[in-house]
Each structure stands twice: as C-alpha cells, then as structure tokens.
C-alpha cells in the first residue's frame, strides 16, 4: 500500500502489475474500500494490466475530510494519484458512486481518460427528493454510526438471494460498510447529493465505455445501464446474471470475462 497527500488528506492506494501495462484505475463505491476489487485486480494483473485501486478520502485507510466532499474532489484525487504514479492516461472505472466519480473524471480530465468502465451507476443529476434523502442519511450515519445502516442495505448491495448463497462475499461487504468512518460516508453523501448531470459529457465521449450492471440490481436497475449505453457513442453493455448492485463481487468470473474482453478489444496491453 502506497500513499500521497492531496488537498490536506493522506490518501492510500494499491498499485499492482507491470509498470509498462495499460493502467486501469478502479474506484470503489459507497461505503466500501479498495478491497472490493480484489477479484478484478488478480484477473487483470494476470492479463498484463497495471491496476490501481485507491481508497477514496473518507474510506478505507485514507484520511477523512469531514463536511461535504463533492465528486469533483474525488475525481481530482484520482488525477493527482495518476500524477504521483507518472501515468498520463488510464482506463478509469467504478461501481455505483465510483462510476459517477469515473464520469466526473472524464468530464474534468477527458484527455487523461483512455476508456470508461461504468458499473451499476446512474448519469443524471440528483433529484430534489434524492438530495434530501442523502442528507438525511448523512445525518443519521453521524448520529448512529454504520452498523444499523449496513444491516439494512446488505440485501440491496447484493442481490437478496446472494446474501445467503455467497456468505463470504456478504461478510466482506458488511465488514467494509461497518468499518467505514461515518464522517467520511456522510461527507460523500452530501457531496454526491449535489452532483451534476453527466449525460451531455457521455454523449460527447470520444472514448469507449463498458457499461455493466447486475441483472437484479435494486439501486440502479438494468434500465439505467441501458440509458447510459445509448448515450455513449462507443459503448458495450453487459448484464451480469445472478448479481445485484455489486456484480464484480457477486459474479467475479463473469464480470472479469466481460471486462477483459472489453480491455483486450479497446485497450490491449503490451
């Protein structure tokens, strides 16, 4: 695990694979950490890719920035990480909030975006109802901590049937959620509530995009992924059966196969 300091916070990350390989940055969602991507790291490194997995500020081993952290801050943290590693362009992907950070990165740093991987995410700006909900949840997490919330949402983060069918995966997801600092989770929720609409920038994208979604995602259903895929001029859509909001964790072999097919087609590594 390596670290750098950006805008007053020590941010930690893992950097795996050959330095000459095509760089792939994988951004976790809320409220997780970089270990969410372990199955993808192993598969991509074996295929010759360089894989960077950051802990976002407020999550995992990175420092907390309390208050409100907009998606633009997270995206610029990724850009600073690439600078730190001497990487000019990268494939940038993420799941859920991480997918929105990838879209924000593409919006702010289009020339540094080699391709996008957008898993189980949504492109429109937050609604008024959604903003209120996220701010109420932020207040609740600060008051109560993460445990009750984690128990309530585990059967939405994973397809409900996978909570029992995949006990090790469920235990890992629960552990990540429970270990998240409530201040970091709340700050991200408040910032995400103010996110912009990414549809115009996606429609103007000059890079390929892989759009992935779990067939039984309760948060961002297949229709959300289909709408993103229709926007991006060069998009590949993949629906992962027997998975919910975290198909990379629930069905890693299927997810990795789709991801590697996309990367070998659009971003072959030396």
Automatic annotation (TrEMBL):
GO terms for molecular function: hydrolase activity. The keyword Isomerase does not apply. Residues 23-247 form the AB hydrolase-1 domain. Pfam families: Abhydrolase_1 (PF00561). Coiled coil: none annotated. PANTHER family: AB HYDROLASE SUPERFAMILY PROTEIN YCLE, MONOACYLGLYCEROL LIPASE. This is Alpha/beta hydrolase. It comes from Streptomyces kunmingensis.
């Amino acid at each position: 695990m390596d670290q750098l300091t950006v805008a007053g916070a020590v941010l930690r990350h893992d950097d795996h694979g050959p330095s000459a390989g095509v760089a792939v940055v994988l951004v976790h969602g809320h409220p997780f950490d970089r270990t969410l991507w372990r199955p993808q790291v192993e598969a991509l490194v074996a295929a010759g890719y360089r894989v960077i997995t950051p802990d976002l500020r407020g999550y995992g081993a990175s420092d907390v920035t309390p208050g409100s952290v907009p998606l633009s801050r997270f995206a610029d943290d990724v850009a600073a990480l690439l600078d730190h590693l001497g990487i000019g362009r990268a494939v940038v992907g993420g799941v859920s909030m991480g997918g929105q950070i990838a879209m924000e990165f593409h919006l702010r740093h289009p020339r540094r975006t080699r391709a996008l991987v957008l898993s189980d995410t949504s492109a429109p700006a937050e609604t008024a109802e959604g903003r209120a909900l996220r701010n109420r949840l932020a207040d609740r997490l600060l008051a109560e901590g993460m445990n009750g919330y984690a128990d309530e949402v585990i059967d939405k983060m994973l397809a409900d049937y996978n909570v029992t069918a995949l006990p090790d995966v469920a235990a890992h997801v629960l552990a990540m959620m429970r270990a998240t600092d409530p201040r970091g989770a709340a700050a991200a929720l408040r910032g995400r509530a103010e996110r912009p609409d990414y549809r115009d920038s996606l429609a103007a994208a000059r890079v390929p995009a892989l759009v992935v979604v779990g067939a039984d995602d309760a948060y961002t259903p297949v229709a959300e992924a289909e709408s993103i895929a229709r926007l991006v001029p060069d998009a590949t859509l993949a629906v992962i059966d027997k998975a919910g909001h975290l198909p990379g964790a629930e069905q890693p072999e299927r997810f990795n196969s789709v991801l590697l097919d996309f990367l070998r087609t659009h971003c072959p590594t030396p």
